[in-house]
Amino acid sequence: LISVVTLIILGAAVVASSVITQRAIRDQERVLLQERTGEAASVLGSAFAGIQQSLSLLGTIAGAGQGRSSLFASAARSALTSSTEGLVVTAQRGTGMVVTATAGDAPAVGQVIPADQEPLAHRALSTTGMVSGVLPNGSRSWLAFALGNAAGPGTVVWARVPFSAGSTAQALTGPWGNLNLALYLSSRPDPATLLVATTKNLPLAGGIQYPFAVGAETWLLVASSPSPLVGRLAQDTPWIILIIGVAVAALVTTVVEAQSRRRDYAAALVEERTASLRQAVTELEQTQAQLVRQEKMAAMGQLASTVGHELRNPLAVIMNVLYLLETIAGAEGSEAMLRHLATAKRETSAATLIVADLLDYSAGRTPMRAPVQLADLVAEALSVVPPPAGIEVVRHVDPDIAIDADRDQMRQVLLNLITNGYDAMPGGGILDVSVRSSGDSARITVSDTGTGMDEETQASIFTPFFTTKSRGVGLGLAVTKRVIEAHGGTISVQSTPPVGTSFTVTVRVGAPIVSVPR
Amino acid sequence: MNMTKQPDVLVVDDEPRMRDTLVAILELQGYCVSSAPDDETACAAVQDGSFDVVVMDIRMPGLVAEASRAVKDLSQVAE
Known about the structure:
The complex is a heterodimer.
Chain A: H1 2-64, H2 69-79, E1 86-93, E2 96-104, H3 118-125, E3 131-137, E4 140-148, E5 155-163, E6 167-168, E7 180-184, E8 194-197, E9 208-214, E10 217-224, H4 232-332, H5 335-363, E11 370-373, H6 374-384, E12 391-397, E13 402-405, H7 407-424, E14 429-438, E15 441-448, H8 455-460, H9 476-486, E16 490-496, E17 500-508
Helix pairs in contact in A: 1-2, 1-4, 4-5, 6-7, 7-9
Chain B: E1 8-12, H1 16-28, E2 32-36, H2 39-48, E3 53-56, H3 65-78
Parallel strand pairs in B: 1-2, 1-3
Helix pairs in contact in B: 2-3
């Protein structure tokens, strides 16, 4: 985007500077053309002023040497130039104008001038200053200048120059050689009054109009320049600016684009690196947390092992002593003693179970696998822990499902799940134990209709030393999970308070049991 | 096995209190009970006397394969 903006800004700047330069050069061209035209006009003006002076001087001579045309002729001879064809002095005689003096190619003295020349003569007589006009001369024309009352009242001094009206002159050489010029005998560029032009392409497009005085009248010089006065290079400058500017803009845009891409690439790279770093940090943190957890578990296992071993023998001794005391009390028939001893035995048994849990947890031995008939195992477990009063056990056990497992460990699993189920139903209920085949796995489900667990509890039940029971160290399900996982199986829990809880164990089915004669 | 004569029992356990209570329980049952604190003593006792039953803590520290073999020999003797 930034490169597009750069391109637009630079492009606009280039075009603007090109246009400004073009206008400046056009203005300069105009100023130059105006100056040159002015120069040309002033030169022309002074030339015609010279003619007026000559006519005035000749008129004075003619007036002074009345009747002596030779004096006029000798004076006029010096005034005749290569372009001035003839000079005459006429005077009013009756109704016509009669020639009174002459020089060059002009009518003889005494001739009456043609009627078509009279309007110019009348105009000269009624005007102070020289007048001019085009007079017909057969196929060609004369440009005639006339100064009235120059050789006395009623006289007119004429100078005439032959030319082709409206003709195309050769292009000028010299200082104005590079201009197209058109000269009009009026103050407006009227084609009817065109005296001479250096080109046929009239009116001159974009020409400068420069009016100037010729005697008592105003002529108009129009000039244009076919080739630039400021020079070809100046004329081309806007285009040069445009082309170079566009090239620079393209270059700058390319650089900006490249920089922008490089920056984007760098940003992406930084982001990528940051992400991978963050991931690495996360992994490290997870690894550290796992290490800490493992360390903690190991410490707990150590503690469980130590406590278990230290308490096992004392508890066994206490049980033995209680047995002895019971026997003695039975022989003596002491009912109260027997009741108290029964309480002591029950509590010691509970303590023994906890110690057994601790030892199970700390031992964590590798399963010693052998085919295990699940129907038998369920029956055995239920006979070991029969349901307490108020709890009904329902069995849905498919016969002949065998798994390859450590029988003692699987028995412990079943005992844990069944006693947990009992404990979850203090007010009684139904415990459903089912064993079903599912593909190449056996699925053992132990469901109770107990209080159920909230999600937080469900998330923690497999954590060692987590317990909701008032008695127990919270190792039963931790041991159960470890055993199942050591068998390559899975255990999951589904619980809905207050409907009940269901544990599902999935273990791969082993080879069918081969019956061996006993 | 002679029904009139109570079997001779050897209790082997390194825990003195455990050993004592076991001896007491078995004597209460009317058995003729001897005891040994470790497997060496037990082996010697098995070699010398004739016991019908040996009650031994098989997880006793310092228990060697020799003891197991001795028990096996004893079982052959019993037959």
